[in-house]
Amino acid sequence: MTRTYNVKTQVFATLSISVTGFCTGTYHSFSAVVIPKIKRPLDEGGWNISLEQGSWIASLFFIGTIVGSLLGGTFNQAIGAKRVINLVSPFIFVAWILATLAHSVEFLYVSRILLGTCYGIFLAVVKVYTAEITHPDFRGVTSAFYSVQLSTGLLYGFLLGYFLEDWRLVTAFMALPSLALFFLSLFIPDSPYWLVEKNQCEKARKELKRLRGSRSNYEAEFHEILTRKREKDTLDNEEQSDSGMRWISVGRSSRFWKPFLKIGVLMCLSELAGMNVLAQYMVIVFDESGSSVAPELAPIIVASVRLGIACISTVVLRYSPRKPLFLLCCVVICLSYVAMGSFTYLKSDLDEHTSIGFISAFGWIPLTCLVAIQGSQTIGFLSIIHFNLQAESFSTEIRSFGCGLLGVVTSLARFATTKLFPQMISWFGLFGVFYFFAGVMLVILCYTFVIMPENKGQSLVHTESKLNANKL
């Protein structure tokens, strides 16, 4: 099929704002590479922190994310994604410098909360902006850019941890991507949907022309957006004049709570499935599982393969239907958890001599399974659920608020799983935790088979019409 629109500006804008994904990769890899370093004794350059303190360093990030998710929707609605990124990205740099200069674990706590707040704001902004500026036929490709950047950020963080012994140097280098994000965000266009909501229709037309190209049929798309806005203004005039679509009125709206319940449950289940926890504790997981690959090197291999899969996903998502692809990813992750649980369980029953032979023969299993889990998460959960389905499930005037509140729910679940992960290992054993994650993934498989729509190639106006007709 011949493409009738220009993609250059769309690619530049989405790649630029997806640098937030690179920053996110450094947030997550920080816990995996820095906590083992500061757990070392004082004479080895560490702080001799306890596992409990380490779990707080990893999990307090998500307390900040809750705050940021609440703020992000309001900020995006008020000033637009471009200005939000301009204003917030310098605070990422400040937070990393605070961590670099920290002289106690409490300073690391504050730094992590501040980074989490920035991340939460971006959660409510980036996916909405990406969906709103991208042509429906091209949205599957651009939604994968964030996954590519996230995987690159993870690899960057793991490489820093592997080659740099001083954890302060690691955190200093992790500050650099935020500077790139700030400068790139100065040149991206505003969202035409946001401009129409702000009654800046002529500017919206110009930005849409800039995004699609002068030879495209951007006028038809613009009038579709404008017509939908006028219809909503007519239907919602009384509601908006009373409350201005504040948080409480958003929560009462069926256009909010129906998709919120459906997607919110899926997001919580996704966090309970442990995929993000593994990234936070990857070095510890490889060490505890008994992989034949060095615990410090294995995350680099996983992140490298994940990056390759993320790059391939830009093509896969361009042509593949989303729902079957997502269900396939769920099956792969579930089976990988079962394999890891079985490997860890069998190893735990062996004596030291037999264990050496067992690891020599089957020590490749943890690495292979982690690669499969992280790769499937990149395609299925990050690209399809986090970027496409969330943004497509809410109408324009509440899209930022809806994604922001979903970020709150997700962050609460992620905080709980990240904080409790070390305790879960002590309660159930590592094999028991893997089996639990496999069970949750099986629930996700059944749940999404029932509730997940197929919106590939459909405009946001069309998916919104389906939502209002109770077809989502």
Give the name of the CATH superfamily.
MFS general substrate transporter like domains
Helix share bin: over 70%
Low-pLDDT parts are 240-245
Residue fraction in strands:
under 5%
Q: What is the fold named in CATH at topology level?
A: Growth Hormone, Chain: A
Order of helices and strands: HHHHHHHHHHHHHHHHHHHHH
The major sheet is characterized as: none
CATH class: Mainly Alpha
The count of strands amounts to 0
Structural class: mainly alpha
GO molecular function, one term: transmembrane transporter activity
Keywords: Cell membrane, Membrane, Sugar transport, Transmembrane, Transmembrane helix, Transport
Organism: Tigriopus californicus
Membrane topology: Multi-pass membrane protein
Walkthrough of the structure:
The protein has one domain: Growth Hormone, Chain: A (Up-down Bundle), CATH 1.20.1250. It contains 21 helices and no strands. It has helices spanning 8-17, 19-38, 51-79, 81-100, 105-133, 139-163, 167-174, 176-185, 192-197, 201-212, 218-243, 247-252, 254-272, 275-280, 282-289, 298-319, 322-348, 352-362, 364-392, 396-451, 460-468. Helix 2 (19-38) runs antiparallel to helix 7 (167-174).
